[in-house]
Amino acid sequence: MNKGFLIVASFSLAFAVVLGALGAHALTMVLNQMQLSSFETGVRYHVWHSFGIFLVHLIPAPYLSARARKWISWLFLIGIVFFSFSIYLLNLRFLLWNRDLC
């Protein structure tokens, strides 16, 4: 079992919870319904990918090699970065680059 991936998955899951709370509370006033729904989709997949890393590390060694476990974990992390974070950026880009809101 690779403890490094379990630690990363733990922090990733905690970060997803923080983003979910942000979307449910703080962003309801600044995002329209379509953007909010998209943001929630990013959070949902972020949580599932993080949880997937945990599940991969619970599979016994005879069924999944350490090399496969490592590759699957990396693919889940890449999925979080490219899928979930792209959705976050698409929906929050106007907050990040719009100087009129400040």
Structural class: mainly alpha
* Secondary structure tally: strands: 0
Helix content: over 70%
**Shape category:** elongated
- Count of the separate structural domains: 1
Overall pLDDT metric: 90
Low-confidence stretches: none
Q: Work out the radius of gyration.
A: 16 Å
Secondary-structure element pattern, one letter each: HHH
Largest sheet: none
Number of helices: 3
Q: Could you tell me how far the N terminus lies from the C terminus, measured between alpha carbons in angstroms?
A: 47 Å
Annotate the secondary structure layout.
Layout: H1 3-26, H2 33-56, H3 66-97
Structural summary, described in words:
With 102 residues, the chain is mostly helical. The protein has one domain (3-97). 78% of the residues lie in helices and 0% in strands. It has helices at 3-26, 33-56, 66-97. The longest helix has 32 residues, at 66-97. The mean pLDDT is 90.
Give a quick rundown of the structure:
The chain has 102 residues and is mainly α. The chain is built from 3 helices and no strands.
